[in-house]
Design brief:
Two copies of one chain form a homodimer. By secondary structure, the first copy, chain A, is an alpha+beta fold. Chain A contains ten helices and seven strands. Chain B binds a DNA duplex (20 and 20 nucleotides) through α4.
Chain lengths: 216, 216
DNA sequence: CGGCATCCTCTTTGATACTG
DNA sequence: CAGTATCAAAGAGGATGCCG
């Protein structure tokens, strides 16, 4: 059935690509890294544009290759959860590095691109730092605008930064707006005032953000 | 012309994959990293299995995306050289990491796989170390067996390891044999004596190899 | 030769619809 | 919720032809 098209090269890179080189494969792994355990439909919403048969096929393939694990819950709940295996989690540094390489490409306008705030988790954890470790913890919320559930929570405190998909109780700062505005602000390419003028909705204390941005 | 099939996601990883996620793209970049400037036919021999029209299409695409540069020589020689741009060279850490992730997959037999000794350059430089920096430099030659030009030179000395595609004047050690035997020996999974029994041809001083392998 | 372009067949993808 | 079924369109793979 699965043609199992391999490069047929005895090379570590080619072997890796035989497993994760198929279209959509690394993005599926991105979702599983960012969200942890996932239902099928969670994956679909985090992977706008993927065809459902492709998602099913990739998950089967990745499972067979020991990257993904499938956990079927009991009949009463009738839910299936998809996880990364340990082997799969070892791909995280690869995704971080490849994402960092791709970061400059985010400068171009995103007209027509889909956008989920949780995709910013990796860049946020890589490029932002808590520059005031002794201060009280702060919480920042990023909201995509369109869908109220398209929200990422950034928590900083004690010199560390965490992200969580979904909202928070009482954030210090909420940024709501278009993808490029959020990214521009987080990347330090855009001042809050400029972004505001361009349509970003800023609610709360801007100092919470200043604390995380590189000096400049 | 080029349908320019993009993921349409405003995410750094997806953007990176829009550029280097196509089939064969990362392997082309591997060849350019390992060989430096390349003629079209050099790329073909280093990429067994690729269709010539695909190679041409990928090179065009990578050039348009600023990863590859094409250098046309003067009419008398009428040769075209392909390079990586600086941006392209920045992918090296990504390939190293992804290759390292794929390394365990090399344990499975390579029946029918193509094999070029120069594909071992990355693993050799990553996983071998000169454990006798004060000793005289040594040269080891890896030969694939079939084609006399399928040869990689490893030079170690002063605590550093270099590799070069092609042969050397007077190597201290020459290992000739099947892909898995070479890899098994370099990975320390196979003793020279065992590999010899399995068909590896060992000429010269085995101490040259011992110097580079992790203790054990 | 070196660097492709063309033609052809086969597989994969993408979009949509449908089901236990 | 977690997929399978179907089908048109695009892409991959292989052979060969062309042109400086």
């Amino acid at each position: 059935m699965s043609a199992d098209r391999t490069y047929g090269q005895y090379c570590a890179l080619a072997k890796a690509l035989d497993v994760v080189g198929d279209r959509w494969a690394l993005l599926i792994i991105r979702e599983l890294l960012l969200r942890g355990a996932c239902r099928y439909t969670d994956l679909q919403t985090g992977l706008p544009g993927i065809a459902t048969n492709l998602l099913a096929a990739r998950l089967r393939r990745l499972e067979a290759d020991g990257v993904v694990r499938r956990e079927a819950a009991q009949p009463p709940v009738a839910i299936t959860l998809f996880h990364l295996t340990e082997r799969g989690k070892e791909l995280e540094p690869v995704l971080l590095l490849l994402g960092a390489w791709g970061a400059p490409l985010m400068a171009e306008p995103a007209a027509g691109d889909a956008f989920c705030t949780h995709w910013l988790s990796f860049p946020v954890r890589q490029f932002l730092h808590d520059r005031n470790p002794d201060g009280p913890p702060v919480t920042i919320l990023l909201a995509g605008g369109g869908d109220a559930r398209n929200v990422l929570t950034i928590e900083a405190g004690g010199g560390k930064i965490h992200t969580r998909i979904g909202g928070a109780e009482s954030p210090d700062l909420v940024l709501t707006g278009a993808a490029q505005l959020l990214v521009g602000v987080l990347a330090g390419k855009l001042r809050l005032s400029e972004a505001k003028a361009a349509g970003l909705v800023v609610e709360g204390d801007p100092a919470a953000l200043e604390r995380l941005l590189p000096k400049g």
